[in-house]
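Q: What would this chain look like folded?
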Amino acid sequence: MLARITHAVDEHAVDLLLVAGDIYDRALPPEWAVAALEGFLSDMARRGVQVVMTAGNHDSAQRLGFGRALMTSAGIHFRTALEDSWAPVVFSSASSGGAQEQLLVYGIPYIEPQLYARALGLERANHTAVMAEVLARITADAQRRRQELPSDASQQIIVMAHVFAAHGVASASERHIGASVDAGDEALHHEDTLGGLSVVPLELFSGVDYAALGHLHGRQQLTQSVRYSGSPLRYSFSEAHQAKGAWLGDSRSADQITGLDWQIGRPLARLSGTLEEVLEAGTVERHRDSYVQVKLTDPVRPERAFPRVQDAYPYLAHFSHSGAGSDTQQRTYAQRVEPARSAEDVVSAFLSHVRGRGPSADETQLVAEGLEAIRLGSATHSNDAHGGAPLSTAQEETAT
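A: My prediction, written as structure tokens:
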């Protein structure tokens, strides 16, 4: 993944790289991940690429921000603390006509409302209120800086934020940050519900030239100037059909933004149907090299279904059978076994419960032979224990 990003930076002569949170997948990243990030950032610094990274809800802001003051001189800018939100990374240049151009990049780390609402002077601890206050402070800072520029100078504002924005489409991979949205559904903002206040309205970003958002894993455009880059890798089967890659743009124009499509690692495939349909030659040919999720829908679970599917798809990642699931879910194991009047009935009920069908004729014969062997063995042992004396009918039943 890092090699693919580096290639894109070189191919398109990128001079500014933005990563809006979730640098790591956990607060205590493994040592190899820390080393990989260090190597990548060193490569960017050697290329003269400026990098702005913010902390996401998966990251430990304190750990990710270690050494950030030292890294700034190398063009690596971490934004991990609340106060960083309205302290922009400032880039200045001259236009072709000689006028000054100022680009302000404000990196807003993930802000947990319950932890920071009081520091922001807020009575309501929710994502919408927190983001509105932070963006108000950003606007005030940008206006102050604009007043210090010559009258013919231009100013562009980019805001990075790790939030769940309205109309964003979720997957099953994102960690819950207050908005409960099913995979594939679009999140909406409603002022009259607590959950809606976790979904940040797009109007909050109307005062900036571009909003580079993080958190949702699918690359998506919410408006011309508000976009999610998404994750470069697929983290669940709910992301099988998501666009993956990055956005490539020119800071001078929100219209000059294109999507970079990346296919990193094996593709994902979700297959649902009968065993015959799943094992159809053309289907196997298309998906044999993919990570596959298979859901069989046969009314009765076919014999050797799992090994047959696994043999066809070497990278099978998830297997399930739903054909007999409704009856299995409606009746507990205890309810199935309750009517049993013999050991044979118990075995039959067990097989019906765990695989959706009772024993075949051959299996019934094997079960009968096995149970008979147990009975004979128990009877022989009981006879030996009684000195070889014959058992009464009651004793034999007890021994069995």
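The longest helix spans residues 361-385.
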